[in-house]
Amino acid sequence: VQFWELVFGTWLAYGFLVLMWEQALRENLVEWRYVMITFLGASFYWINHYFQQAPFYAPMLYGYTLLVWVAYYWTAVRGRGSFIWTVLATLSFVAFTVAFIGFEQLARFLWRRFGVHEFWFMLASYFGFLGLILWRGAMGPQPWNLVANSRATRNNDGRPMSHRNYVLTLLALLAALWVPLAFDPFDRRDWLLENVLLVLAIALLAATYRRFPLSRISYTLIFIFLCLHTIGAHYTYAEVPYDAAWRALTGSSFNEWVGWERNNFDRLVHFSYGLLLAYPVREVFIRVAGMRGFWGYFLPLDLTMSTSMLYELVEWAVAEVFGGDLGMAYLGTQGDVWDAHKDMALASLGALIAMSIVAFINSRIKRDFALEWAESLRVKRLRPLGENEL
After folding, report:
1. In this predicted model, what pLDDT tens digit does every residue of 121-156 receive, in sequence order?
2. How far apart are CA 89 and CA 68, in angstroms?
3. How many helices and strands, by DSSP H and E, does the chain display?
4. Which listed residue, 49, 143, 278, 290, has the most CB atoms within 10 A of its CB?
């Protein structure tokens, strides 16, 4: 990372951090906490720039990452909410890190792809930092003692981001990822095919938003999955350079570390299909069909398995219709004759894990969980069908 990339990424990361905490996590931190977290994030530049060739680079990077994560928890998360909120807030460190790196990589992409000179990034950073100072300065004086509770700095109305604005924020973030990846994809025809699914998904969510809005959790999970799909569409699923990125970051091969012999980004996305989308499917079953107890967990798993199978049939049909390199790029088997079976198995495993987690959480917070489960399995009609009616 060059210094001008770091500067450009820092002010954007600071703004992202503030919006993530105050709008998504609904918690206002005193300003010194935002400054401390951003400073710790920017300090990775020191390690990556001066110690990347050192023999102890990898353990140093991992150790410092763990140290910063602990500092993030201690500075911003500790003692502020429920157990579930604490877990989500702690994991927000990952989102902040990915965003910080993404902003730096955006600068590098614009420099390499369009030849934007570093002067313009420094100029944008100058006005960006100035805008941050004016924006945060307008918030008024804040307590600076180290134990000040962040709730003292809430706005007078105390209102969190509306549901509509939250969804629009997710859409804007997805667009911010999609637009640069729309330039110069690995295979333009495959990119067009892959984006048919993206367009259909967004069109369906937009068409049903007024009459059937989903929860913030469901929209967030769908957003994460669509981000993974957008990355896969840009490179094609068989060519996503995650191993090269890992090697550039750590100096070692991720595939060699875990014993993989192929590009498994497609397997990750199939697993994520079940892990991330089973919960939105469960929400639809509960709100539309009134599913409760056992069926509220089994049917999302069952639908995930069946739609995963249908997608493999769609891949087969597309490969047959288009054929050639385009068909193989869309299919992405990488020579594995059991690719479709493994993809379906991973999607099923992801959904099973998701439903197991939801069931465990509900068993802890719902007093009638066991009764509801037993009632859902009770036979409601003793007489068989088919004697007097179909």
Report:
1. 899 999 989 888 888 877 655 554 434 444 433 333
2. 14
3. 16, 0
4. 278
